[in-house]
Amino acid sequence: MEKYDHKYGAEQIQVLEGLEAVRKRPGMYIGSTSIRGLHHLVYEIVDNGVDEALAGYCTEINVIIEQGNVICVTDNGRGIPVEIHPKTHISTAETVYTVLHAGGKFGGDSGYKVSGGLHGVGASVVNALSTWAEVTIKRDGGLYQMSFEKGKTVKKLERIGDAEGTGTKVRFLADDTIFESLDYEYEVLEKRFREIAFLTKGLKITIEDQREETPKKAEFCYEGGLISFVEYLNKNKEKLHKTPIYIEKDGEVPVEIAIQYTSSYSENIYTFTNNINTIEGGTHLEGFKRALTKVMNDYARNHNILKEKDSNLQGEDIREGITAVVSVKVKEPQFEGQTKTKLGNSEVTGVVQSMVNEALSTFLEENPSVAKAILDKCISASRAREAARKARELVRKKSSLETSTLPGKLADCSSKNADECEVYIVEGDSAGGSAKQGRDRKFQAILPLWGKMLNVEKARADKIYGNDKLNPVIVAIGAGIGADFDVTKIRYGKVIIMADADVDGSHIRTLLLTFFFRYMRPLIENGNVYLAQPPLYKLSKKGMEDKYCYTDEDLEKAYKELEEKGITRDSLSLQRYKGLGEMNPEQLWDTTMNPETRILIKVTMEDAQKADEIFTLLMGDEVEPRREFIQQNAKYVRNLDI
Asked: Which residue positions in the chain have pLDDT lower than 50?
């Protein structure tokens, strides 16, 4: 191996002092420098107040997004200690903001029983990644203040007056040389603070956005805690029992769980450790699932709901239609990865399992009508699963790689390289015909759909396998469905929904997206689903190249550009496209299918909880919430027939 000629001595070994390491490698501490990392700064400071609430000292946290994207977080906790620290010989408050891994969250005699901020890096990392930060503390009858620039102290902690009460106020401006954008998304922060309020019973959190002329403000405080959380998640669903089942136990590992079953067919279990959303689950989820399966089967056997000849209900049967929130408080949590998305403490499995076994068994015995309603649904789910298994086997037999078994209406592409292939799912035979003639046959496949599609939000899996409208989509994509779906087996790297720019087209797009979200979710998570954007208008004139416009704004802009060239509006011919079928193959290729000129919208899933809520709202059984949603959002609609 060729040696690289460079010096390698003591002078080449870098020692990054203070918070330089954070500024040099910010991603190691906050995940990324994208908008997600920017929001993480706010969470770190808010979490310090939440830790005070968990310790029993804080009742209120206020967050303000000021003009210029300055963040201000105030809490009424104990206030950061102000005395000189014995090891650093500077004030404890300055130590917390300038020394990595300095915090009240380490060791057996730490300042907190449990804490979300395990690493003790929150305040100092926020400071390091800010252009400036200012901290004001109320403690011991005094008002103290200190300030920093890019992590360095510019004004040491000093007493600036007297104050009643206690608390901490932090104002900071994130460093625009580090972050891609300083534009905080109010809705993202609002959702997170609502979540925290649910998880911290009685804590009041307010958020205010002062950047617009009309400020936005929200206030969250839930004395019901997790019960309120589950009721919020199920507000648009039909419930099998009115009041959520609530389980709580204090101890070495405090556990709090709320459960409610609905008539829906999807499973929604959210897990938290010390208020951190463990989106990948972990040992607490494992313990909960084991106990739930055992308790339900035991109850069904003991009460002769399941006969001797019957097989046990499987976990997926028992979890159909469940909404549950599992929250544990662990003194020294072990998270897999810095991002804290999966709990690894093995002892938590047994604690959760034993607690749910005992409490849920008691609840079912004391509430036989609720137990019967839930188990009737579980048994129905079991039968549907068996029917789905048989249907799935039939689908598998039809899904071999031989071309002859592909859907008859599918015009496949010649390439077999999934990375370069794409399939257009097209509404209607006439548009499908134009698309087939206009496409590039090497890498573009066309699958026309016709007739009314099944709303999977209102159907079980057994009704989906073999459905004459959905089966062609399942077979064409070639990666299975539901639990069997394997994203590595997809036949096309891009699955593009191409529907008319009208109400019916929007409905078809929503039905397909609901199907992908419920039964092929990895397809969305992997970024394989797109929406085609056909044009709304064509401007034409003899001797001029046709100009296509995709929105009313595009049309107005095109008119102005042409007027600047001396072409009047009256001299132009305007065609309004009502459907894809109105375009000839060349027009469809030029506007909607040519990779060089087309507009595609990638479907992403930043927040599964929000997506689940929207799909339930728009496609579920409850009419009133849908009516309210339409009334509230109608004012935002542009181009009603799009």
From this structure: 1-4, 6-17, 106-109, 117-120, 338, 399-404, 633-642
What is the value of pTM for the model shown?
Answer: 0.71
Q: DSSP string of 510-528?
A: HHHHHHHHHH-HHHHHTT-
Q: How far apart are CA 331 and CA 252, in angstroms?
A: 8
Single out the residue of 427, 450, 575 nearest to residue 503, CA to CA: 427
| ∠ CA 55-205-242, rounded to 5° | 90
List C-alpha distances in Å: 154 to 123, 131, 135, 145, 362.
Answer: 16, 12, 12, 11, 60
Of 3.30.70.270, 3.20.20.140, 3.40.50.670, 3.40.50.2000, which CATH number belongs to 412-534+602-636? 3.40.50.670
Amino acid at 544: M
Q: Residues 546, 548, 550, CA angle at the centre, nearest 5°?
A: 175
What residues act catalytically? 427, 500, 502, 504
Sequential DSSP letters for 221-267 = --TTTHHHHHHHHTTTS-BSSSSPEEEEE-SSS-EEEEEEEBSSS--
Buried b / exposed e over 500-509, threshold 16 CB at 10 Å, is bbbeebebbb
- Residue closest to 605 by CA, chosen among 279, 323, 289: 279
* pLDDT tens figures, 486-500: 999 999 999 999 988
CATH 3.20.20.70 fits 20-220, yes or no: no
CA-CA-CA-CA torsion sign (332, 338, 342, 346)? negative
